[in-house]
Amino acid sequence: MYKILNIAVFYLLFIQNIKANDSTNFKIQFSKKLDTKNIKIFFDDGLEQKLIDVIFKNNITIIKRNLFATYGTLSILYETDNSWLRLLINSKTGHIIFTAPDSAQKSLSNNIIKNGIDVGNCKEFLDLKEYCKKEFEAKSYFSNQYNLLKNDANVKNYNNSSRELALKAMEYIKVRGNKYFYFWFFRLNIVNELLRTNQLELYEIFNAAFPVKFKESFEGKNLKQLIEGNLFIKSGETSPSFVATDYRGNVISLSKLKGKYVLMSFWATWCAPCLAEIPMLKKIRKDYKVDDLEMISVSCDKDSTAFIKKITDLNMNWNNVFGNADLSNKFGNKPIPSLYLIDPNGIIKFSSWEDEEKVLLEILKKNLKK
User: Fold this and answer.
1) Is the Cβ–Cβ distance between 88 and 103 less than 8 Å?
2) How far is CA 213 from CA 48, 89, 178, 219, 242, in A?
3) Distance CA 253, CA 247 (A)
4) Among residues 307, 313, 326, which one has the least CA distance to residue 248?
5) What is the pTM of this model?
6) CATH for 21-117?
7) pLDDT tens per residue, the chain (370 residues)?
8) What strands lie across the sheet with 60-67, from one edge to the other?
């Protein structure tokens, strides 16, 4: 129990070290006809999007969260009919009231909003949607096919349609970057879709299309870090500098590890390939001295209890970092598992995205004494 409390405390300390611009205070009132058990609410604060725990009283809940970005993104899902609503909100006190929908409408269709922007109905989005009409219709069609049939062909068609829509939207946005809405759309929609395939194009548009005030905002700096992480984190490149706190409260700094090899692993307790990789990591830890090789595992988990249980059960006796989105972004926030070996001069010598596992073992064997 003490260890679990340790995680919560140091995770909060990490969040507090990032200065919030402000905080949100947003009231949500749902129709009495909706079952709150089927409501899920997500919030993006400019650093990451999370499913948030909410408490309802008479179908009313109040969202109070730190806000690092210019606008936070509040996403509401009613699972019964897959009804979605996305709002941009800032530090001004606001609310949304959902009234009972007509029988033919989705559950979240009728609403009254104060100090919030309904993404799906604002002018900027409707203009974008008209420009990308063909691509929106294709994605909608393949989405329906995927949900109905769920076979490999429809998954591929859906993924292709999503990519085509992102490319078309990027074409529209790159000459309209002076509007914050399009910067937001680029950050949360286009980048997420094209980050694995079009890093250089994303980087060029980020630098050329948007004004300095957007790029220098908290969310802008975070986005640049994410794109650069995907573009430049590879063998032969210099590792990004970082400072992190492990789950025990120990501060880990790459600059203080200079002179050692550093093995970074990104993983999660629910990731089967990650768990399959743990025996290899344990053997490496056993084979090489801490004085020569530091190991840092960065968990992408949201559940601190599951995290602490797993590292205890598996006896992962090296540095373990929990819930550090900033550190994940610096290394491109790539799909897990991801492994990187940094040499004593801060150069990445191994990346699991480019090299086979045997390359890592050969580098360690050649440069370190067992």
Assistant:
1) no
2) 20, 19, 10, 11, 25
3) 14
4) 307
5) 0.79
6) 2.60.40.1110
7) 434 434 443 444 444 344 556 788 999 999 998 999 999 999 999 888 888 889 999 999 999 998 999 999 999 999 998 899 999 999 899 999 999 887 778 889 899 999 999 999 999 999 999 999 999 898 887 777 766 666 677 778 878 889 999 999 999 999 999 999 999 999 999 998 998 889 999 999 999 999 999 999 999 999 998 999 888 888 899 999 999 999 888 999 999 998 999 999 999 999 999 999 999 999 999 999 999 999 999 998 888 889 999 999 999 999 999 988 888 889 988 888 999 999 999 999 999 988 888 999 999 999 988 7
8) 60-67, 22-29, 94-98, 111-114
Q: What is the CA radius of gyration of the chain?
A: 23
Q: How many CB atoms lie within 10 A of CB 54?
A: 14
Q: Could you tell me where in the chain the CATH 2.60.40.1110 domains are found?
A: 21-117
In the chain, residues under CATH classification 3.40.30.10 are 243-367
End-to-end CA distance of the chain: 36
Q: Which CATH number fits domain 243-367: 3.30.460.40, 3.40.30.10, 3.20.20.60, 1.10.10.60?
A: 3.40.30.10
